[in-house]
Amino acid sequence: MVNWNLLSNDMSNRIYHRRVLFQEPMSKHTTFRVGGPASILVMADGEETARTAIEMAHEVGIQPFFLGNGSNLLVADAGYEGIVIKPTLGLQCAEFWDTRIWVGSGTLLSKLANWAQGNGKSGLEPLSGIPGTVGGATVMNAGAYGGEMAQVVTEVIFMNEKGELVHFSNEECQFSYRHSIFADHPEWFILWVQVAVEPGDKEAIRAKMAELAEKRRSKQPLDLPSAGSTFKRPAPLPDGTPVYAAALIEQAGCKGLRVGGAQVSEKHAGFIVNTGGATCADILALIGEVKRRVRDHSGVELEPEVKILGA
């Protein structure tokens, strides 16, 4: 049993106190805007802060949870009795090396894409509208509009459970659909990611990003809190025909379905949105009902894409 008061005091002494938050509402750190408090949230502004927090967590037998932008995360209403580590400041920057960019894991993909555009570097346009961090997007091999992290990541530097720095090549990351080796090793904390880009015309890159942003605005419920696509894309039919979760959900009559403040978006059935005051319990109940109705209607078992913490 962890003595949280003792651990909190010890952590405050070993890590600059402004970097450590206690009983921090996770609703402030998730795009769903739901979730109770985390026992301890460490704002890791660099390698040393991350190492100290990881070491302290392991000293008391806790595997810390590594948080990005919380854009693919649902946290329990009761919160999370554990240690959350979130990359900030020194891990929210980038260094350009001609056709390579080293970027901190806490950097938003949108910010990275904008930096690349401003430097006349192309290749990140399809990822520019994904509301996640570089680290989180690498873990789940995030993608959109035909692009995904696996196509641009060339190297990853992470800290293992012993506090050692390890370099992985693209091949060693073992990318697959919405998955990487890091998803199987939650004890590894990504610090830096190197991505490949190409020289390009700034205005052409800007125009492409604007085009994709307009597609998102026209098709997705960006005006309401959500975690993006709630379910993973199902396996294709035996003949190779693709199957889409949103279509299955709509065909099962779930579009607009509500539980409390949670609703299957009327704009895009692949999204569950927080219409105001939704709880984690509401969202989980709605996910369960959508899965049941789709299974009964089509025989397909939908798999949530959103990660659930503390529930």
Largest sheet: 5 strands, antiparallel
Find the count of extended strands (DSSP E, 2+ residues).
19
Oligomer: single chain
Mean of all residue-level pLDDT scores: 94
CATH architecture identity of the largest domain: 2-Layer Sandwich
- The percent range for strand residues is 25-35%
Biggest sheet: strands side by side, in what order? 6-7-13-11-12
What is the overall silhouette? globular
What low-confidence regions span 5 or more consecutive residues with pLDDT below 50? none
Q: Structural class given helices, strands, pairing?
A: alpha+beta
Query: What is the chain-wise order of helices and strands?
Result: HEEHEEEEEHEHEEEEEEHEHEEEHE
The number of domains: 3
Helix content: 25-40%
The helix tally amounts to 7
| Gyration radius over CA | 20 Å
What distance lies between the first and last C-alpha atoms, to the nearest angstrom?
19 Å
Which CATH C-level class of the largest domain is it? Alpha Beta
The name CATH uses for the topology of the largest domain is: Uridine Diphospho-n-acetylenolpyruvylglucosamine Reductase, domain 3
